[in-house]
């Protein structure tokens, strides 16, 4: 059975997942530029695409922390079926985070393209060619910056993957350390039993030696008595 702390992590994870999915849905709705009733969302504020992306990113970062906490907590679950079940659930949560991160990456790319198109057209497809060209030129540098941001995001995802690998390795080492401690405790127990057995054997040897000396003394006394009787006669 998992601990109450593990269950609280799960509840927090599910709530964060719900918020991230809600932000993804809102972001997806803002990308429907082909709709006849489409109006560009504000560039800033809670209704902006950037805000939805930020909510998703913060939620996913929190979910990753919760997965790490659940992984550590699963090591304290009693070994056996309960621990296997806890770790299986942790792996499921990891996959959820990975899928949502891929969704965030895709939506962010589409949001950047949509924002760029909104800036070019101003939400109006009837702009003349000169205006479109001027706006396109002004957005050139912005596009380069966004490409740099995309590269950084990919590096961040690689860093998260490396962090997951490190966390998994630490968990394995922790389990192995626990096994070694149990093994060491068993060795100490066996060593104590061996020492006790050795003490008992030594005690038995001392007792046997004492009895042997007593027997020799009795035999010598009998010999002296016999010799004395012979001389007295």
Topology:
Layout: H1 4-29, H2 49-74, H3 81-121, H4 129-138, H5 140-232
Helix pairs in contact: 1-2, 1-3, 2-3, 3-5
Structural class: mainly alpha
Radius of gyration, rounded?
39 Å
Query: What fold name goes in the CATH topology slot of the domain at 4-125?
Result: Methane Monooxygenase Hydroxylase, Chain G, domain 1
Give the CATH class of the domain at 4-125. Answer: Mainly Alpha
Helical run tally: 5
Q: What is the tally of beta strands?
A: 0
- Helices and strands, in N-to-C order? HHHHH
Molecular structure report:
- This protein has 233 residues and is mainly α.
- Among the domains are: 4-125, Methane Monooxygenase Hydroxylase, Chain G, domain 1 (Up-down Bundle), CATH 1.20.58; 203-232.
- The protein contains five helices and no strands.
- It has helices spanning 4-29, 49-74, 81-121, 129-138, 140-232.
- Helix 1 (4-29) packs parallel to helix 3, helix 2 runs antiparallel to helix 3 (81-121) and helix 3 (81-121) runs antiparallel to helix 5 (140-232).
- The chain starts with a helix and ends with a helix.
- The mean pLDDT is 81.
- Pfam families: Sec20.
């Amino acid at each position: 059975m998992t601990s109450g702390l593990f269950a609280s992590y799960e509840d927090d994870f599910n709530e964060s997942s719900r918020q991230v999915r809600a932000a993804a849905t809102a972001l997806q709705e803002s990308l429907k530029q082909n709709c006849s009733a489409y109006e560009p969302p504000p560039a800033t504020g809670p209704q902006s695409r950037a805000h939805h992306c930020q909510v998703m990113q913060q939620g996913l970062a929190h979910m990753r922390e919760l997965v790490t906490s659940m992984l550590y907590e699963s090591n304290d679950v009693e070994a056996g079926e309960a621990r296997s079940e806890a770790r299986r659930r942790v792996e499921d949560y990891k996959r959820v985070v990975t899928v949502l991160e891929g969704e965030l990456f895709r939506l962010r790319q589409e949001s950047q393209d949509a924002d760029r198109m909104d800036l070019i057209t101003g939400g109006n497809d009837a702009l003349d060619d000169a205006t479109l060209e001027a706006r396109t030129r002004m957005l050139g540098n912005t596009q380069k910056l966004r490409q740099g941001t995309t590269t950084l995001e990919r590096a961040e995802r690689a860093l998260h993957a490396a962090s997951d690998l490190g966390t998994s390795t630490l968990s394995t080492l922790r389990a192995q350390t626990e096994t070694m401690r149990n093994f060491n405790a068993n060795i100490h127990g066996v060593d104590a039993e061996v020492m006790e057995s050795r003490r008992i054997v030594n005690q038995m040897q001392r007792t046997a030696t004492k009895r042997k000396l007593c027997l020799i003394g009795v035999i010598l006394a009998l010999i002296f008595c016999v010799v004395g009787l012979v001389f007295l006669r």
